[in-house]
User: Fold these one by one.
Assistant:
Number 1:
Amino acid sequence: MRVEFTVNGERHTADDVWPGESLLYVLRERLGLPGSKNACEQGECGSCSVYLDDTLVCACLVAAGQANGRTVRTVEGLGHGGDLDPVQRAFLDAGAVQCGFCTPGLVVATHDLLHRIPDPTDAEIREALAGNLCRCTGYEMILDAVRVAAAELAR
Ligand code: FES
Ligand code: FES
Protein backbone atom coordinates (compact mmCIF):
# COMPACT_ATOMS: atom_id res chain seq x y z
CA MET A 1 0.00 0.00 0.00
CA ARG A 2 0.98 3.60 -0.41
CA VAL A 3 1.12 5.86 2.66
CA GLU A 4 1.05 9.61 2.15
CA PHE A 5 1.45 11.79 5.21
CA THR A 6 3.08 14.90 6.56
CA VAL A 7 6.08 14.46 8.83
CA ASN A 8 7.63 17.44 10.57
CA GLY A 9 5.97 19.79 8.09
CA GLU A 10 7.00 17.94 4.92
CA ARG A 11 4.85 15.74 2.72
CA HIS A 12 6.13 12.18 2.35
CA THR A 13 5.08 9.15 0.37
CA ALA A 14 6.03 5.58 1.26
CA ASP A 15 5.29 2.88 -1.30
CA ASP A 16 4.95 -0.88 -0.89
CA VAL A 17 4.19 -0.60 2.81
CA TRP A 18 2.96 -3.94 4.06
CA PRO A 19 -0.11 -4.05 6.34
CA GLY A 20 1.83 -5.02 9.47
CA GLU A 21 4.50 -2.36 9.07
CA SER A 22 4.64 0.10 11.95
CA LEU A 23 4.79 3.85 11.77
CA LEU A 24 8.07 3.59 13.70
CA TYR A 25 9.58 1.38 10.99
CA VAL A 26 8.52 3.79 8.25
CA LEU A 27 9.91 6.79 10.11
CA ARG A 28 13.26 5.16 10.85
CA GLU A 29 13.89 2.91 7.89
CA ARG A 30 12.08 4.55 4.99
CA LEU A 31 12.21 8.24 5.89
CA GLY A 32 15.63 8.24 7.57
CA LEU A 33 14.40 9.73 10.84
CA PRO A 34 16.22 7.71 13.53
CA GLY A 35 15.34 10.01 16.45
CA SER A 36 12.38 7.87 17.52
CA LYS A 37 14.00 4.83 19.08
CA ASN A 38 13.05 1.19 18.75
CA ALA A 39 13.58 -0.47 22.11
CA CYS A 40 10.68 -2.82 22.88
CA GLU A 41 8.31 -2.65 19.89
CA GLN A 42 5.52 -3.50 22.32
CA GLY A 43 4.33 -0.15 23.63
CA GLU A 44 6.10 -0.68 26.94
CA CYS A 45 9.03 1.77 26.95
CA GLY A 46 7.93 5.03 25.30
CA SER A 47 11.20 5.45 23.39
CA CYS A 48 9.27 5.74 20.11
CA SER A 49 6.86 8.49 21.29
CA VAL A 50 5.68 10.82 18.53
CA TYR A 51 2.69 13.03 17.84
CA LEU A 52 0.06 11.63 15.47
CA ASP A 53 -2.03 14.67 14.60
CA ASP A 54 -1.75 16.26 18.04
CA THR A 55 -1.97 13.08 20.09
CA LEU A 56 1.02 11.43 21.77
CA VAL A 57 1.38 7.84 20.56
CA CYS A 58 3.89 5.01 20.60
CA ALA A 59 4.90 4.81 16.95
CA CYS A 60 5.67 1.09 17.32
CA LEU A 61 1.99 0.42 18.04
CA VAL A 62 0.60 2.44 15.13
CA ALA A 63 0.26 0.67 11.80
CA ALA A 64 1.81 2.85 9.13
CA GLY A 65 -1.43 2.75 7.17
CA GLN A 66 -3.18 4.49 10.06
CA ALA A 67 -0.99 7.54 9.44
CA ASN A 68 -2.20 7.93 5.86
CA GLY A 69 -3.40 11.49 5.28
CA ARG A 70 -2.38 12.54 8.76
CA THR A 71 0.34 14.61 10.40
CA VAL A 72 3.25 13.21 12.39
CA ARG A 73 5.73 15.17 14.46
CA THR A 74 8.85 13.48 15.75
CA VAL A 75 11.63 14.62 18.04
CA GLU A 76 13.44 15.88 14.94
CA GLY A 77 10.53 18.26 14.31
CA LEU A 78 10.43 19.96 17.70
CA GLY A 79 13.23 22.45 17.15
CA HIS A 80 12.83 25.78 15.43
CA GLY A 81 15.09 26.93 12.58
CA GLY A 82 18.08 24.91 13.74
CA ASP A 83 17.61 25.78 17.42
CA LEU A 84 16.68 23.19 19.99
CA ASP A 85 13.22 23.31 21.51
CA PRO A 86 13.30 24.48 25.16
CA VAL A 87 12.44 20.93 26.26
CA GLN A 88 15.42 19.52 24.35
CA ARG A 89 17.68 22.20 25.82
CA ALA A 90 16.40 21.51 29.34
CA PHE A 91 17.29 17.82 29.09
CA LEU A 92 20.86 18.81 28.21
CA ASP A 93 21.07 21.53 30.85
CA ALA A 94 19.72 19.27 33.60
CA GLY A 95 22.09 16.43 32.73
CA ALA A 96 19.15 14.14 32.08
CA VAL A 97 20.84 12.38 29.18
CA GLN A 98 23.14 9.43 29.75
CA CYS A 99 23.02 6.74 27.06
CA GLY A 100 20.29 8.82 25.43
CA PHE A 101 18.18 5.92 24.24
CA CYS A 102 15.13 7.00 26.21
CA THR A 103 15.69 10.71 25.63
CA PRO A 104 13.78 11.33 22.37
CA GLY A 105 10.65 9.69 23.75
CA LEU A 106 10.93 11.52 27.03
CA VAL A 107 11.44 14.82 25.22
CA VAL A 108 8.32 14.33 23.09
CA ALA A 109 6.27 13.19 26.12
CA THR A 110 7.49 16.18 28.14
CA HIS A 111 6.70 18.51 25.25
CA ASP A 112 3.17 17.11 25.20
CA LEU A 113 2.81 17.40 28.99
CA LEU A 114 3.94 21.03 29.14
CA HIS A 115 1.61 22.06 26.35
CA ARG A 116 -1.30 20.49 28.23
CA ILE A 117 -0.19 21.45 31.75
CA PRO A 118 2.32 24.33 31.70
CA ASP A 119 3.12 24.15 35.44
CA PRO A 120 2.76 20.48 36.40
CA THR A 121 3.12 19.14 39.90
CA ASP A 122 5.66 16.38 40.51
CA ALA A 123 2.78 13.89 40.62
CA GLU A 124 1.54 15.12 37.24
CA ILE A 125 5.05 14.83 35.78
CA ARG A 126 5.44 11.29 37.11
CA GLU A 127 2.05 10.30 35.75
CA ALA A 128 2.69 11.85 32.33
CA LEU A 129 6.07 10.13 31.99
CA ALA A 130 5.05 6.82 33.54
CA GLY A 131 5.11 5.15 30.13
CA ASN A 132 8.68 6.23 29.39
CA LEU A 133 11.36 3.95 30.81
CA CYS A 134 14.94 4.99 31.52
CA ARG A 135 17.57 2.46 32.58
CA CYS A 136 20.31 4.98 33.36
CA THR A 137 19.35 8.14 35.20
CA GLY A 138 17.20 7.07 38.12
CA TYR A 139 14.64 9.64 36.88
CA GLU A 140 15.56 12.48 39.27
CA MET A 141 17.45 14.38 36.57
CA ILE A 142 14.57 13.79 34.20
CA LEU A 143 12.20 15.40 36.72
CA ASP A 144 14.67 18.28 36.98
CA ALA A 145 14.67 18.63 33.19
CA VAL A 146 10.89 18.89 33.11
CA ARG A 147 10.96 21.56 35.82
CA VAL A 148 13.67 23.49 33.93
CA ALA A 149 11.67 23.28 30.72
CA ALA A 150 8.47 24.41 32.45
CA ALA A 151 10.28 27.42 33.93
CA GLU A 152 11.81 28.30 30.58
CA LEU A 153 8.49 28.05 28.74
CA ALA A 154 6.81 30.24 31.38
CA ARG A 155 9.26 33.12 30.79
S1 FES B 1 9.61 0.87 21.10
FE1 FES B 1 7.60 1.65 21.15
S2 FES B 1 7.06 1.66 23.24
FE2 FES B 1 9.00 0.71 23.19
S1 FES C 1 19.55 7.72 29.54
FE1 FES C 1 19.91 5.60 29.10
S2 FES C 1 17.91 4.73 29.14
FE2 FES C 1 17.63 6.76 29.78
Note: The chain is about 35% helix and 15% strand.
Number 2:
Amino acid sequence: MSLQLYAHPFSSYCQKVLIALYEHGAAFELRMLEDPQAKAEFAALWPLKRFPLLVDDGAVVLEASIIIEHLDLHHRGAARLVPLEAGPALQVRMMDRFFDNYVMTPMQKIVGDALRPAADRDPFGVAEARAMLESAYRWLNDAMAGREWAAGGGFSLADCAAAPALFYADWTHAIAPGLDEVHAYRRRLLARPSFARAVGEARPYRSYFPLGAPDRD
Ligand SMILES: N[C@@H](CCC(=O)N[C@@H](CS)C(=O)NCC(=O)O)C(=O)O
Protein backbone atom coordinates (compact mmCIF):
# COMPACT_ATOMS: atom_id res chain seq x y z
CA MET A 1 0.00 0.00 0.00
CA SER A 2 1.37 3.43 -0.93
CA LEU A 3 0.37 5.28 2.29
CA GLN A 4 1.56 4.34 5.75
CA LEU A 5 0.62 6.52 8.72
CA TYR A 6 2.67 6.22 11.90
CA ALA A 7 0.18 7.33 14.50
CA HIS A 8 -1.82 6.66 17.63
CA PRO A 9 -5.63 7.03 17.55
CA PHE A 10 -5.75 8.97 20.86
CA SER A 11 -3.27 11.64 19.71
CA SER A 12 -4.78 14.99 18.75
CA TYR A 13 -2.40 15.66 15.85
CA CYS A 14 -2.95 12.13 14.55
CA GLN A 15 -6.70 12.69 14.64
CA LYS A 16 -6.18 15.88 12.64
CA VAL A 17 -4.68 13.77 9.82
CA LEU A 18 -7.10 10.85 10.24
CA ILE A 19 -9.99 13.27 9.63
CA ALA A 20 -8.37 14.29 6.32
CA LEU A 21 -7.76 10.67 5.29
CA TYR A 22 -11.41 9.83 6.03
CA GLU A 23 -12.67 12.96 4.23
CA HIS A 24 -10.74 11.84 1.13
CA GLY A 25 -11.59 8.16 1.54
CA ALA A 26 -7.87 7.45 1.08
CA ALA A 27 -6.65 3.91 1.77
CA PHE A 28 -3.71 3.73 4.17
CA GLU A 29 -1.96 1.38 6.54
CA LEU A 30 -1.97 2.48 10.18
CA ARG A 31 1.44 1.80 11.71
CA MET A 32 0.16 1.84 15.27
CA LEU A 33 2.75 3.34 17.62
CA GLU A 34 1.87 0.94 20.43
CA ASP A 35 3.42 -1.79 18.30
CA PRO A 36 7.17 -2.01 19.15
CA GLN A 37 8.14 -2.72 15.53
CA ALA A 38 6.19 0.32 14.22
CA LYS A 39 7.64 2.43 17.05
CA ALA A 40 11.20 1.43 16.11
CA GLU A 41 10.56 2.18 12.42
CA PHE A 42 9.11 5.57 13.37
CA ALA A 43 12.09 6.49 15.58
CA ALA A 44 14.46 5.60 12.74
CA LEU A 45 12.48 7.74 10.26
CA TRP A 46 12.08 10.81 12.49
CA PRO A 47 14.50 11.33 15.38
CA LEU A 48 12.36 14.20 16.75
CA LYS A 49 9.66 11.57 17.37
CA ARG A 50 6.64 13.80 16.95
CA PHE A 51 3.69 12.06 15.39
CA PRO A 52 1.92 11.59 13.03
CA LEU A 53 4.31 10.84 10.19
CA LEU A 54 3.24 9.76 6.70
CA VAL A 55 5.26 7.61 4.34
CA ASP A 56 4.07 7.81 0.73
CA ASP A 57 5.71 5.28 -1.52
CA GLY A 58 8.89 5.57 0.53
CA ALA A 59 8.88 9.38 0.85
CA VAL A 60 8.56 10.80 4.37
CA VAL A 61 6.03 13.60 4.96
CA LEU A 62 6.29 15.43 8.30
CA GLU A 63 3.87 17.70 10.20
CA ALA A 64 0.10 17.24 10.31
CA SER A 65 -0.74 20.34 8.23
CA ILE A 66 1.79 19.41 5.54
CA ILE A 67 0.53 15.82 5.48
CA ILE A 68 -2.98 17.16 4.85
CA GLU A 69 -1.71 19.44 2.08
CA HIS A 70 0.10 16.40 0.61
CA LEU A 71 -3.12 14.33 0.69
CA ASP A 72 -5.01 17.14 -1.05
CA LEU A 73 -2.34 17.25 -3.77
CA HIS A 74 -1.74 13.56 -4.34
CA HIS A 75 -4.56 11.47 -2.84
CA ARG A 76 -7.62 13.62 -3.24
CA GLY A 77 -11.05 12.03 -3.08
CA ALA A 78 -14.25 14.02 -2.83
CA ALA A 79 -12.74 16.54 -0.43
CA ARG A 80 -10.77 19.74 -1.11
CA LEU A 81 -9.29 20.67 2.26
CA VAL A 82 -7.12 23.53 0.99
CA PRO A 83 -8.86 25.70 -1.62
CA LEU A 84 -7.10 26.09 -4.97
CA GLU A 85 -7.60 29.84 -4.97
CA ALA A 86 -4.80 31.65 -3.14
CA GLY A 87 -6.96 34.05 -1.09
CA PRO A 88 -9.30 31.45 0.44
CA ALA A 89 -6.31 29.10 0.90
CA LEU A 90 -4.59 31.78 2.99
CA GLN A 91 -7.66 32.09 5.24
CA VAL A 92 -7.64 28.31 5.74
CA ARG A 93 -3.94 28.26 6.59
CA MET A 94 -4.34 31.22 8.96
CA MET A 95 -7.07 29.46 10.92
CA ASP A 96 -5.03 26.23 10.89
CA ARG A 97 -2.17 28.15 12.53
CA PHE A 98 -4.62 29.62 15.06
CA PHE A 99 -5.82 26.19 16.19
CA ASP A 100 -2.34 24.64 16.33
CA ASN A 101 -0.58 27.55 18.03
CA TYR A 102 -3.24 28.94 20.36
CA VAL A 103 -5.50 25.97 21.17
CA MET A 104 -3.50 22.76 20.60
CA THR A 105 -0.23 24.10 22.05
CA PRO A 106 -1.64 25.40 25.38
CA MET A 107 -3.84 22.29 25.69
CA GLN A 108 -0.76 20.07 25.19
CA LYS A 109 1.17 22.15 27.75
CA ILE A 110 -1.46 21.52 30.44
CA VAL A 111 -1.85 17.82 29.60
CA GLY A 112 1.92 17.34 29.36
CA ASP A 113 2.40 18.99 32.72
CA ALA A 114 -0.08 16.58 34.32
CA LEU A 115 1.99 13.68 32.97
CA ARG A 116 5.18 14.93 34.66
CA PRO A 117 6.39 13.86 38.10
CA ALA A 118 5.04 16.32 40.71
CA ALA A 119 8.51 17.77 41.36
CA ASP A 120 8.95 18.72 37.69
CA ARG A 121 5.63 20.52 37.22
CA ASP A 122 5.47 24.09 35.89
CA PRO A 123 2.51 25.92 37.52
CA PHE A 124 3.50 29.27 35.97
CA GLY A 125 3.56 27.79 32.46
CA VAL A 126 0.24 26.04 33.07
CA ALA A 127 -1.38 29.29 34.25
CA GLU A 128 -0.10 31.00 31.08
CA ALA A 129 -1.52 28.16 28.96
CA ARG A 130 -4.92 28.45 30.68
CA ALA A 131 -4.95 32.23 30.07
CA MET A 132 -4.11 31.64 26.40
CA LEU A 133 -6.97 29.16 26.03
CA GLU A 134 -9.37 31.68 27.61
CA SER A 135 -8.29 34.36 25.10
CA ALA A 136 -8.39 31.92 22.18
CA TYR A 137 -11.92 30.76 23.06
CA ARG A 138 -13.16 34.36 23.30
CA TRP A 139 -11.53 35.35 19.99
CA LEU A 140 -12.92 32.25 18.27
CA ASN A 141 -16.42 32.97 19.57
CA ASP A 142 -16.42 36.27 17.65
CA ALA A 143 -14.66 34.79 14.60
CA MET A 144 -17.24 31.99 14.25
CA ALA A 145 -20.29 34.30 14.24
CA GLY A 146 -22.20 33.51 11.03
CA ARG A 147 -19.77 30.73 10.02
CA GLU A 148 -20.39 27.02 9.71
CA TRP A 149 -16.72 26.05 9.28
CA ALA A 150 -13.63 27.82 10.55
CA ALA A 151 -12.38 29.58 7.44
CA GLY A 152 -15.77 30.77 6.24
CA GLY A 153 -16.06 28.36 3.28
CA GLY A 154 -16.43 24.59 3.19
CA PHE A 155 -14.93 22.05 5.61
CA SER A 156 -11.15 22.47 5.37
CA LEU A 157 -7.70 21.86 6.81
CA ALA A 158 -8.59 24.43 9.50
CA ASP A 159 -11.51 22.27 10.68
CA CYS A 160 -9.25 19.18 10.72
CA ALA A 161 -7.06 21.16 13.15
CA ALA A 162 -9.98 22.56 15.13
CA ALA A 163 -11.75 19.27 15.81
CA PRO A 164 -9.21 17.50 18.06
CA ALA A 165 -7.93 20.84 19.41
CA LEU A 166 -11.34 21.94 20.73
CA PHE A 167 -12.28 18.39 21.68
CA TYR A 168 -9.36 17.97 24.10
CA ALA A 169 -9.08 21.65 25.05
CA ASP A 170 -12.62 21.60 26.46
CA TRP A 171 -11.72 18.54 28.55
CA THR A 172 -8.56 20.33 29.73
CA HIS A 173 -9.88 23.86 30.36
CA ALA A 174 -13.65 24.06 29.95
CA ILE A 175 -15.01 26.44 27.32
CA ALA A 176 -17.14 28.97 29.26
CA PRO A 177 -20.92 28.35 29.02
CA GLY A 178 -21.63 31.74 27.39
CA LEU A 179 -19.40 31.12 24.36
CA ASP A 180 -22.27 29.78 22.28
CA GLU A 181 -20.55 29.99 18.89
CA VAL A 182 -17.61 27.89 20.09
CA HIS A 183 -19.87 25.28 21.71
CA ALA A 184 -22.03 25.06 18.58
CA TYR A 185 -18.93 24.74 16.35
CA ARG A 186 -17.47 21.99 18.60
CA ARG A 187 -20.81 20.12 18.35
CA ARG A 188 -20.78 20.47 14.53
CA LEU A 189 -17.26 19.06 14.45
CA LEU A 190 -18.27 16.11 16.64
CA ALA A 191 -21.18 15.39 14.28
CA ARG A 192 -18.94 15.37 11.19
CA PRO A 193 -18.64 11.67 10.19
CA SER A 194 -14.86 11.82 9.65
CA PHE A 195 -14.24 13.19 13.16
CA ALA A 196 -16.95 11.02 14.77
CA ARG A 197 -15.06 8.03 13.37
CA ALA A 198 -11.72 9.24 14.78
CA VAL A 199 -13.31 9.90 18.19
CA GLY A 200 -14.86 6.41 18.16
CA GLU A 201 -11.54 4.77 17.31
CA ALA A 202 -9.84 6.66 20.16
CA ARG A 203 -12.50 5.78 22.75
CA PRO A 204 -10.69 2.63 24.04
CA TYR A 205 -7.72 4.81 25.08
CA ARG A 206 -9.56 7.43 27.18
CA SER A 207 -7.92 6.14 30.35
CA TYR A 208 -4.67 7.64 28.96
CA PHE A 209 -5.98 11.16 29.53
CA PRO A 210 -4.11 12.27 32.68
CA LEU A 211 -6.72 14.81 33.84
CA GLY A 212 -9.53 12.23 33.70
CA ALA A 213 -11.72 12.05 30.58
CA PRO A 214 -15.20 13.43 31.27
CA ASP A 215 -18.14 11.08 30.74
CA ARG A 216 -19.41 12.78 27.56
CA ASP A 217 -18.56 13.34 23.88
N1 LIG B 1 4.02 20.08 14.95
C1 LIG B 1 3.65 18.67 15.00
C2 LIG B 1 3.18 18.35 16.42
C3 LIG B 1 2.95 16.88 16.61
C4 LIG B 1 2.80 16.52 18.08
O1 LIG B 1 3.03 17.32 19.00
N2 LIG B 1 2.41 15.28 18.30
C5 LIG B 1 2.33 14.76 19.65
C6 LIG B 1 1.17 13.78 19.74
S1 LIG B 1 -0.40 14.61 19.61
C7 LIG B 1 3.60 14.01 19.97
O2 LIG B 1 4.34 13.66 19.09
N3 LIG B 1 3.87 13.79 21.24
C8 LIG B 1 5.01 13.02 21.64
C9 LIG B 1 5.93 13.77 22.52
O3 LIG B 1 5.66 14.96 22.83
O4 LIG B 1 6.93 13.17 22.93
C10 LIG B 1 2.57 18.40 13.95
O5 LIG B 1 1.86 19.34 13.58
O6 LIG B 1 2.46 17.26 13.47
Note: Residues 11-13, 49-51, 63-64 surround glutathione (CB under 6 Å).
